[in-house]
């Protein structure tokens, strides 16, 4: 009898230990609020996986952040016009990805906007000292003359910015890369279900342990609103949003609002019918790039471009509160806010 009870106890304990438990951690990384949630049959192993994922994110931040002294990007910019800089294989890879996306997006996505970004002062790094006035036309045109990616040269693992006044900024692509790498780290640690969220750049691993999909939302893009207007269920996919409501300043004199998504063609914050773009794709790096590029392209060209991309879908919201979707995702979304309208 004692042996039977002991075996039963061990069996029940084993079953209990195999029930996935949710572990989670929040950190401030890459200038934004980070969340990682994961299901693990061992709380200890789950927390260790979270630690490894955040370590991976910090590694990328230390290589690619423009705000960290002696990062690869900082060294590239400080050596602009002077000499080539040897960088890590990862930084080189992300820069090459950025150059490729520049071509594919016909210049809408540009990793050489550092001078313009600094001028407008609406970047993540400037939130502690927000700008209260727009730069002058002369200042904008001067900065815009130093965003030509032809001035960025890669040779033998070294990066050289030939224009001494040009500045590289990987902020529009490095966060997506970090999300993907964190998700990869979780998988390598045995995590099959969870998500990585870095300030709205999200990758969802698997379904939940009960087989249900993860419910993700698209935020109301109206300034000051916090509700979710669209729900979509995902597994093993990324969802990334960009919009004019995320970072901005208001001119004290004119009361005009200026947001952070700059159009390389004009040097000004993008001004079209769009107020937010959400991309669903297989990787967060794709979502990071295309959410920005499509926002700059505008509604018609943005939708047309997205329809040509395999495994990439988009949800575009206009200022008149109309929601447009690509053909492959329309039936999968649920509109929660009836003040918005789904386009045919």
UniProtKB/TrEMBL annotation:
UniProt cofactor(s): Mg(2+); Mn(2+)
Top enzyme class, one word, equals transferase
**Cofactor remark from the record:** Magnesium. Can also use manganese.
Q: What is the name attached to this protein's record?
A: FAD:protein FMN transferase
GO-annotated molecular function: metal ion binding; transferase activity
Keyword terms? FAD, Flavoprotein, Lipoprotein, Magnesium, Metal-binding, Transferase
Coiled-coil boundaries: none
Q: Which catalytic reaction applies to this protein?
A: L-threonyl-[protein] + FAD = FMN-L-threonyl-[protein] + AMP + H(+)
Q: Which organism is it from?
A: Clostridium aceticum
Q: Which family does it belong to?
A: Belongs to the ApbE family.
């Amino acid at each position: 009898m004692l042996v039977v009870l002991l075996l039963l106890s061990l069996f029940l304990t084993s079953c209990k230990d195999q029930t996935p438990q949710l572990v989670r951690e929040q950190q401030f990384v890459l200038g934004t609020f980070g969340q990682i949630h994961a299901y693990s049959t061992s709380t200890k192993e789950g927390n260790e996986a979270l630690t490894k994922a955040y370590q991976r994110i910090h590694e990328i931040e230390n290589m690619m952040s423009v705000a960290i002294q002696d990062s690869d990007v900082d060294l590239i910019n400080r050596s602009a016009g002077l000499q080539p800089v040897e960088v890590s294989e990862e930084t080189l890879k992300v820069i090459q990805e950025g150059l490729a996306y520049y071509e594919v997006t016909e210049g809408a996505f540009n990793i050489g906007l550092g001078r313009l970004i600094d001028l407008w002062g609406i970047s993540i790094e400037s939130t502690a000292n927000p700008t209260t006035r727009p730069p002058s036309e002369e200042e904008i045109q001067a900065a815009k003359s130093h965003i030509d990616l032809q001035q960025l040269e890669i040779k033998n693992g070294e990066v050289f910015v030939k224009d001494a006044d040009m500045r590289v900024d990987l902020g529009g692509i490095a966060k997506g890369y970090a999300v993907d790498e964190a998700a990869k780290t979780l998988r390598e640690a045995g995590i099959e279900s969870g998500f990585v969220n870095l300030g709205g750049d999200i990758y969802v691993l698997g379904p939940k342990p009960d087989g249900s999909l993860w419910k993700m939302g698209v935020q109301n893009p109206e300034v000051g609103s916090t509700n979710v207007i669209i729900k979509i269920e995902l597994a093993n996919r990324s969802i990334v949003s960009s919009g004019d409501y995320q970072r901005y300043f208001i001119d004290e004199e004119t009361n005009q609002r200026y947001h952070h998504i700059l159009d390389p063609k004009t040097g000004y914050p993008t001004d079209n019918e769009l107020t937010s773009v959400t991309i669903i794709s297989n990787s967060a790096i794709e979502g990071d790039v295309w959410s920005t590029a499509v926002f700059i392209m505008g509604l018609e060209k943005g939708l047309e471009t997205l329809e040509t991309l395999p495994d990439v879908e988009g949800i575009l919201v206009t200022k008149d509160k109309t929601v447009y979707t690509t053909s492959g995702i329309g039936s999968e979304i649920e509109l929660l806010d009836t003040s918005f309208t789904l386009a045919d």
